[in-house]
Amino acid sequence: MNSKNNFLNKTWSFILVAAGAGARLGGESKQFRFLNDKQVWRYSFDIAQSLLLKGFIDEIVVVFPRSVDITTSNFKFKDKRIKFIYGGDTRSESVKNGLSLSVSTNVLIHDAARPFLTEKLCLDLINIANKTGASIPILKATDSIKMLHDDNSLLPLDRNLIFLTQTPQLFIRDKLLSIICDNKDSYTDEATIWINHGEPIAYSNGEETNFKITTQLDWERAVYMTQKNRIIRTGHGFDVHQLVEGRDLILAGIKINEFDRGLLGHSDADIIIHAIMDALLGAAGEPDIGTLFPSSDIKYKNISSVVLIKEIIELLTKKGWHVEWIDVTLVAQIPKLGNLIPKFIGNLNKLFSDTIEKRHVNLKVKSGEKCGSVGRCESMECYAVATISK
Ligand code: CTP
Ligand code: MG
Question: Residue 94: nearest ligand to its CA?
């Protein structure tokens, strides 16, 4: 039970309608497109979940299209107050299904296509609806308004009397469900049929950022809103090791067989991973690997560099960084390594992503052109550039 509304004997269900086709925007359904690393519907779902955890609401019902299998583990939340149900071909069917699953006395109905919902807007509306029964967010019209008559003439309207309606829209659950069941006409928001049925409704100021993604320009605005505060950084890494007899050659975490030499170093001397680690640390503004894993420390003797890079990835993740892309150039006169490039890339990519489809790493191998110590087969060099974001 919701402690904050208990004294009013009201409980609140957040119904997120996400079962539309997104026909006007076209392409991949708008509510399932990614804005940064999160799908559109998840933005308002996360706000609802925060309200649930804080005790302001009592239940979340998400209404999905049949094209998404809601029986998979992705949609099984430990918190049994979070529920998923299929919607229908029309908005009213989707809302009806959500209302039918809800067990609260009151509901907030929100468009999944409005990702920039705020907790403040929900709480303002709950405060009002706790007194009045129903409330909606409205925004003043900013353009001048005309109404089209049957004879094609235009009648100017006073824009101070015109308001645009957003969601969430708050209602008494049973009353709204019976109005929807009795109503045969199509409508674009629940406030319309509520008002047409003669029910009172209160309002509060909407938020301009709470716009609905409907057209391509809306989508571009949403992309801009989620990326404008994004920080992108680049770092560079370099490493060189002597090539000597009596050592294993380990590159990108892979032991190179049938070669009688290896790189000399305190750890496994995996020059590729060392250059990548320094590039990542450089981008994140952290000290280099020599400082983090000093060769004077016995615990790093012959250690696999894969273990070390995992620590660095964890450090960056904790600080909120995502690895966008890594580009590596290995300079080696011998052995010939060109045929191993896909294996190197695959092995490195596994460190940053579970799926091969999402690639984060590129790698090239150059010969030393018989120049300098690399060309004389005395050493290898590796260069890496990493781009990270948060
Ligand atoms: N919606 C729904 N079920 C429907 C239709 C709409 O759950 N049968 C939801 C949409 O997923 C969206 C919200 O209602 O979150 C607002 O509707 P709208 O912007 O019209 O979205 P779509 O119907 O998906 O888009 P379009 O009208 O362009 O096809
Ligand atoms: Mg629609």
Answer: 1
